[in-house]
Amino acid sequence: QVQLVESGGGLVQAGGSLRLSCVASERTFNNYYAGWFRQAPGKEREFLAGISWSGGGVTTYSDSVKGRSTISRDDAKNTMYLQMNSLKPEDTALYYCAAKKVAGFQGAYDYWGQGIQVTVSS
User: Fold this and answer.
1) Pair 20, 109: CB distance under 8 Å
2) Which of 7, 14, 81, 108 has the lowest CB atom count within 10 Å?
3) Beta 116-121 vs 10-13: how paired, if at all?
């Protein structure tokens, strides 16, 4: 089974940047669709960005992060990234990486990381 571990979270001031990393236990991100989610207190889990298993990596972004975030992967390192810039207090949440076997960014994801906290202060 694929295991995913997030890192790179923490406390950052508004306007700052973070790069989240998601390391897989095996070759994953060129064989699965994968993405990033977040869940803030009292809110539902929100899809943020996804990347396909295609050679070039087709990507998609939610309106919440589009224009200020970049999802990428490094297949040799079995690692997926989410670069986030211009962070806002409303970005404060638990961030999760996930992967799915079935093609497409929507639908159920099969593997999930444990989540990592991102806190953006004013």
Assistant:
1) no
2) 108
3) parallel
Residue 54 has pLDDT above 80, yes or no: no
Task: Tell me the DSSP string of 20-75.
Answer: EEEEESSS-TTTSEEEEEEE-TTS--EEEEEE-SSSS--EEE-TTTTTTEEEEEEG
pLDDT of residue 103: 84
* Per-residue pLDDT band at 55 (split at 50, 70, 90): low
Q: From the CB of residue 25, how many other CB atoms can be counted at a distance below 10 Å?
A: 12
The encoded tokens of residue 77 equal 């390192």
Contact (CB, 8 A) for 80 and 21: yes
